[in-house]
Amino acid sequence: MPRVKLIAEKSDVGADQHAEIDAIVETLGRVAGPFGVLAYSPGLAQKVMEAGAHVRLKSSITMAERELTILAVSREKDARYEWASHINTARNNDLPEGAIEAVRNSADVSGLAEDYRDIVTYVRQLLQTNKVEQTLFDSMIKRKGTRWLVEITGTIGQYQYISAINNAFDLQPSADADQLEVK
Hints:
By secondary structure, the chain is an all-alpha fold. About 65% of the residues lie in helices and about 0% in strands. The model has no long low-confidence stretch (mean pLDDT about 95).
């Protein structure tokens, strides 16, 4: 049970926030999950939604790469709600089950395809040590380019932020969702 009542529609906020709620619904289809919390701060939910939409819709990274990044952040942050929100999208975008299970179990990724291995390693290094080894960084830039790496890093930041909201306000996945065991 969330720690606060989630804002879900215009009737939950003052008239000064109706345009914000409309923008979120237009982009996401509804106000749900972390946006039901973020809407308590007028303007914040829309800004976070816009950044997320940019990461999702205007990025050079593939859907499988994006979803792997999100799952890896979810694992590092013990973000059960975000994991459950993205696992089916990852599978529907052909992310290999081996990559999903390696992330879920914090397992060795050396046997994964190079791009998937490097994404998971990059997320782990950045979130566990607050830096990335130069050899990994250089390899990813050389293979994929600076824009791609900026967008992967932006995705990490975006979903680290979302995970913090979900975890702090105790948003939980539905009982029938793919559950991420937390540490």
